[in-house]
Amino acid sequence: MIAAQELHTDFQFSQEAESQWSSDTDFEDPDGKDAKTAKGMAAKKGKKAPGDKAKGGGARKAPGAGRVNGHHQENGMENMTLFEVVKMGKSATQSVVDDWIEAYKQDRDVALLDLINFFIQCSGCKGAVSGEMFRNMQNSEIIRKMTEEFDEDSGDYPLTMSGPQWKKFRISFCDFIAVLVRQCQYSIIYDEYMMDTIISLLTGLSDSQVRAFRHTSTLGAMKLMTALVNVALNLSINMDNTQRQYEAERNKVIAKRANDRLELLLQKRKELQENQDEIENMMNAIFKGVFVHRYRDSIAEIRAICIEEIGMWMKLYSDAFLNDSYLKYVGWTMHDKQGEVRLKCVSALQGLFYSRELGARLELFTSRFKDRIVSMTLDKEYDVAVQAIKLLTLVLQSSDEVLTAEDCESVYHLVYSAHRPIAVSAGEFLFKKLFSHRGPEEEGLPRRGRQSLNGGLIKTTVFFFLESELHEHGAYLVDSLWECGSELLKDWETMISLLLDEPAAGEEALTDGQETALVEIMLCAIRQACECHPPVGRSTGKRVLTAKEKKTQLDDRTRITEMFAVALPLLLAKYCVDIDKVTNLLQIPKYFDLDIYTTGRLEKHLDALLRQIWEVQDKHTDIEVLEACSTTYHYLSNEEFTIFNRVNIARSQLLDELVDKFNRLLEDFLQEGEEPDEDDAYQVLSTLKKISAFHNAHDLSKWDLFTSIYRLLNTGLQNGDMPEQIVIHSLQCTHYIILWHLAKVSDGGSIKGDMVTLRKQMRAFCLMCQRYLNGINNAVKEQAFTILCDLLLIFSHQIMSSGREQLEPLVFMPDSSLQVDLLNFILDQVFIDQDDDNNSTDGQQDDEASKIEALHKRRNLLAAYCKLITFNVVDMNTGADVFKQYMRYYNDYGDIIKETMSKTRQIDKIQCAKTLVLSLQTLFNEMLSELGFNVDRSTSAFCGIKELARRFSLTFGLDQVKTREAIAMLHKDGIEFAFKEPSPQGPGSPPLNLSFLDVLSEFSSKLLRQDKRTVHTYLERFMTVQMALQREDCWLPLISYRNSLQARGDDDTMSVLSGISSRGSTRSKKAKPATASKRKYPEEESSCSSSDAVWMNREQNAQTPVMMHSPHLTSTVLRDPKKMRPEDSYTGAYSMPTEQLPHQPVPLQQPVPLQQQQQPHHHHQAAMDYNTQVTWMLTQRQQAEAHQQQERVSMQYAKMRNHMQQAIRRGSGLMEDDEEPIVEDVMMSSEDRLEDINEGMDFDTMDIDLPASKNRRERTELKPDYFDPSSIMDDSVLNVSMF
Q1: What pTM does this model have?
Q2: What letters, b where the CB count within 10 A reaches 16 and e where it falls short, cover 579-603?
Q3: What is the DSSP letter of 37?
Q4: Where would a tag sit more exposed on the chain, N or C end, judged by fewer CB atoms within 10 A?
């Protein structure tokens, strides 16, 4: 393209040109010819009197009936701006543009002002450019002024707003620009006034710091550029036509040559060339002023607009734009960080490669950026990856030599992708590469059969499937090729021919592996045709089939039945001894339309199929083959079809033969005094496998196998030499017997004694499984454990649900011994290291696949046991031994254990909390047994316990109200455990389990503010004064735990000892006067093992401390005497003799003299302060009668302060309107009271209610690109540690 002189950003017009526009001029050529009647005359803008212009593009009367401001006067649209008309979309874009052109002809300044305001308002700006601004201000000043008037309350603007109206507005906005240029392409765009002003405005707006201006102007400029490209393309075509006409006229003989026509053609070509040059100048101005800067804008949507439009330019006007100067921008942007932009790059290139002519001109670009395109097939954005594969498919069509074998292989393996669109695109690429090329020698081949063209293509598919080494994913390969190659995959006649027919002379026969792969592909194609949905792992949701798809499905199923009803017996006969082929072939009948056996008179082929199934089960002992035979019999023996009697007779004969053979072999096998040999054991095992496989899908109750198999199991227990596989399949078969018996009883079709028989058989079998669970063979133990878990779950209390109360006698709950055995199995077989797993066979210990399989098996075992916990089959506290492994085996079983904790919490929050703390106590005791009594809190074992406690704490979530009772009970059990055992080093030393408080402190953040004080009060019951004064390292767990329970600066009601323990307090404390009635502790409260209800009732009066700064009055004085509790007395909390054990609270006594409780020389100055204050408190209590008058004055003052506090609460918006907050339910034992308090409150989702004033302030300060939880969560509101 010819480089043109850059347009200036700002345009300013002098007054000298005013006289040049004394009358309106028609800028359009009425005859449709190209003319420039006013070119060069509008270099400057003419002025008019101020009264002649409407400010801000307002309405004015224009010549022509029914028009106002260039708009139609219809449907009440008078006095509407251009933006409002386009936004409403009620008028056709063509008519809107025609109205504006008419207004432009009458007064171009006013019309242009309308257009300027149109772009300003499309950006969401509330301001408008006035006529005065338009005349006297430069564009940069106008843009600055509009920026100041931009509404910053919302970040939305028309192009980003959601809703159908705004989506339609975007389309209307783009259409308006395109139609405007198209309608003005003959004269107005060449007047050097309209286009120069618009381009200057859009260029200036595109450089604005305001995103709305930048986004809208970039979209407008790019659409304007696209419209100009169309104009340039039309000019180029007209120039070519004019040139051909000129050459044709000039080549005529002189006598026939028309010189005047030659002159006209020359003049026309000259005018077209001048117009072309001007259009190129405009496009250069837009490209250099907007595109070059905005294709790398910080906003991804703006970058995407630029790339999308440059793709259109290269496609529309390839002669000018399809070169490396413009392609480089697309290539560079393929490395963009945003998938939206990369997607536009790939889409732009697809539009170019669709044309073979254009694709041939992209060789240099393809060689430079081919590697990037290939790597984008693995893009993290699925849409980008799909389009990249489609782009490579187009590249492949344009040239076979561009992509190397390595490039193609990187796409081939994507046919096995779990993302279906990627797999389908890769399948199309594979199909184009391997199956689309036909040589001349293939034209005369037959359409069907072994020698057909499809025969070779099917072989190619088999070869590809084998080379990919993913033989278990045949369904994925078929699904990937289905949309582009379904005709090939449905050629089952050719597949059957390849399997049954002998190869022709010189033809290479299929190998055994190739035949196995072909059978699998054939089965997958049959399944795809009959089920019409992707395989497991690729489902994109249930899709309703159309009428055409349903008809195709029925036709395919009919064709499959007619074809394979004849061929399947032959295939089974040929491959009878091949396990893999037979297993796949036996799955084909379940896709048959069984009516065709009767309507098509194919009964003889059905008999042949039944004979072959009998042959297969007779020759095989592999469990997969036997289960396939059983499933086939189950599908064929459908009572709805007429072939049922024929199939049922064959099945009964087969089962009679198997049962008779088993009973005969069992008698010989269990004969006393004879040692069974290996042949007898093999015969019993093979027959038992077949019976077990058929019993899975068929009811064999009438053969009464329970007695004989139970006898076999009992003999194995007595002798201890029963082969492993015989025991495993005997257990499995007995399990099926129990389940079929239960199904019969549940249906109500059994006689009265059947339930009693079932109950006896079930309990006897469970006892048998428990005995095998305690054996030494791991495989047998796993089978017994799995069956026990299933039976316990089936025969639990859940069996009576759905109106089956009559089955209550069958309910079976495991006793303690069985629960212990189940738990021990889990601990021994599941929670083991990978290297300790000896279950792998054939020396495959180091094989990664065997390790994964072993882990999967252990996960299933753990999941089976966890289901017993979640369904209340076993005691919940047995889960403690599972929960304690959460951290150690997090990678292997973390998801299972976490889900189990979640389910148990839903069942019983309190019991779940007790189980969690029990698991921590178990680990703590194990640590003590290993490391001794002196606990080092820096050891890895102790840190592991703390980390586990932290993880447990996170599982409680953020809704503290829901979990408050459970968390409080957890702290209660933890405190009792910490003070349970006295120190083995004698009095004066910390209790043995005191370090457990450090673990317990991880749960303190889950306590509500008022609950922390209640738990702190309960902790003080186990403490002596000496404990509170200790500062040695061994007492740090107690100190840190107490600190975690103290709310931040709000505990005015805290005891003196608690207040002074935190580095001393300068506030004076007044003790409550002694009263006649002191609190007496009942005997049952003197022990740490007291009941939960007693502890709860003791703490029910906990109150929320009032956050009130009071330098001279303590919270004790502020309280109403009627509401003062006996235990609020500071000295009463620790009034116990020194010889009393720390964990045994006793009734309040006279305080022990301070000199007998501590050694002053062991403490620093803070201890002396404490000493002074306690002495002062005791003196005040002994002289209470002398200070009665002073106390009455203090109480009056306290009442006044209470009124002040209530006023402050109401003024600050606190929720408490009463003096006593409702927190006494934290320790209650009745759940009904808790439900009453929480009535009407929905805690399913966490709602954080912030104070209104702070919420407004923080909302204005919140940055849009960053999220700081601390900016919206306040400790005074939430009081929970952020994790």
Answers
A1: 0.70
A2: ebbbbbbbebbebbbbebbeeeebe
A3: T
A4: C
